[in-house]
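Q: Hi! First time asking for a complex rather than a single chain. Here are the components, and I think there are two in total. Is that enough to go on?
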Amino acid sequence: MLLNARRIDHLGLVLLAFEDVTARRRLERQQQAIQGELAHRLKNALAVVQSMAVQTKAATVDGFRSAIIGRMQALALAHGVLIEAQWRPSDLSTLIGRILAPHVARGGSDRVRLEGPPVELSAEHATAFALIVHELATNSVKYGALSLPSGTVLVRWSFTANRLLLEWSDHGGPPVAASRKAGFGTRLITRTAAYQFGGQAELFFEPEGLLCRLDIPLTE
Amino acid sequence: MSGPLEQAAPPLILIVEDELLVAMEMEDHVRALGYAVLGPTASVAGAECLLDGLDPQAALLDVTLRGETSAPIAGRLLRDGVPFALVTGYARLPLDEPALADAPRLSKPVLEAELASVLLGLLHRGNPC
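A: Yes, that's all I need. Here is the structure of the assembled complex.
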């Protein structure tokens, strides 16, 4: 309640006004909370970008530039999906499609097949998940199925008892060298699955192409 | 009291940070400064597990974790006499929790030089030499 008093001298009266400001105060508090949350997310996103820049390694300046830009773009695309969803849970398939779009732009989108039921990802999970998908797509474009005109990628998932099981497989790419060592991208995938989701990622460099299995609990 | 010369093992630093990439960067920095790392871990429960096993000499705590804050860990570290600094994305975040109010702050994104001096300060707290 807001109380206002004014003396009206010539009448010898005092005018009192009570105003119910509950709604206005609630709105102000909500706005403060939203601003705090946005500031937190912004600084967090910048910290993540800095960490990516520090940890991205490449043999050449051009290699570094394209690697860091790719990762930043994946993060930006994920934020785009989140903003459209107003930071509420967003659709897994939409997110994967959006992250893959720059990678399949030239080859036609029919080269990547997505198969699975609707699954919602929280805002926190979505950015981490986007980075996993980006690393898998980058691998496909550089060494796997998407590096040849004929190759295809199949992404299949199921969702039961709050567990997301997702399988990414490259088909029709060049033969995979068994000696390929795990780089930062591979480490990022396995560590993200464990650290951000409390789940597991397994990567198999099959002769046919990369196979990645994600087992992720999604209890919100 | 053991001086730095008698201390064979490097000081152990606990890292609590829920953003993997930031945690990995922090881990690299702390190791590069010559310390050993406990963690990193993303949650209060994870930190509790680590603290049940080992006693760090200092800790770096991200304030806002997924769906929780570092306050319970800060409380435990205060009771155990382990100094800690708070890493926060939002420096003016109102920190009502008494356990968090007096600790030194590092603002995200963290600079290596700042991290180095804050860690030195924590480890030499109360030691004029």
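A: Chain B touches chain A at residues 18-25, 28, 40, 42, 64, 66, 89-90, 93, 107-110 (CB under 8 Å). Let me know if you'd like any chain examined more closely.
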